[in-house]
Amino acid sequence: MLYIKPANYEDIEKEWMFQRRIPSDENGFLNDYYDISREDFDTALETMIAQSEGEMLPEGYVPQTIYYLWDDDAIVGTFHFRQYLCQSLIEGAGHIGYYIAPEYRGKGYASQGLKLLIDDIKDAVLEDEIYLRVNRDNPSSLKVMLNNGGYIHHQDETKIYVRIRKYDDLLFRKISENEQEK
Description:
Elements: E1 2-6, H1 12-19, E2 25-26, E3 29-30, H2 38-52, E4 64-71, E5 74-82, H3 87-90, E6 96-100, H4 109-121, E7 129-135, H5 139-147, E8 150-155, E9 159-165, H6 169-181
Antiparallel strand pairs: 1-4, 2-3, 4-5, 5-6, 7-9, 8-9
């Protein structure tokens, strides 16, 4: 069964083993915990959890919740949800960043994981759309975003900026029609 779960102490061993294998920078996904020792991961996990609650944030950072994507009892990916946008995130990385382990790529995990995350967080997003960014040389990740209802908002020489509407326009039209009938 596929599910997402925020970083937590209960799963610390598997989270540590997964997190330490993620390269420090792959396709724009940054990992401060590459090759981290088990002892140092205790402190790192404490920081991750605190930051999801708006605590221990470096200057200029916003709260971020780190989710792990699980397939039964194996972690296959991670999704980072920035709970609101500051100007640098509006013009940059947006609300969500994600990484799928190489052995699980090409199997639909990113698309399914992004859908699970969006379903979980869309009510918490203040904006009408969820902001994402992808490197132009990463068409697989762009496809994941587009498969989840995304559209290309704009692009520059190296990045493509994608937006995903939180709610289906058809649903809004039906709600509006129902309210008008009352």
